[in-house]
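Exercise 7.
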Amino acid sequence: MSGPFHEIRTHLVRHLALDVERFWFRAVVAGDEEVIRGLTSGDEARRVAPDVSADEVLDLYRQEAELADAVIAATPVDAPSAWWPHDLFGEPHPHTLRDVLLHVITESACHAGHLDAARELIDGRRWLVLT
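Solution. The predicted structure, written as tokens, is:
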């Protein structure tokens, strides 16, 4: 599949993999130094090279979700975050794993809505119509 929806979808899923699952769980909650050193600024995490397939992007998301699940399973829900980039975002709002879980659920749902709206604009089909 190619075209505008494919491009939007792969960029958004890559963002969810790297800027959401990896950032919030492996960096913020776990404080993984290797992940923190590898974080990028700007839109690098959203950009998908033309030679990268949708399957590769989905595999990346699955891998990051599995790694996030491991952090969640090993961390008490009230445990404080291990790291926060104060220089970029000031004081953190999510202070515990519970806070991060709620943030990630909200952010993922919001992006799923963006993706559904983009798809509707492209194909005209509506999935949920309330009358």
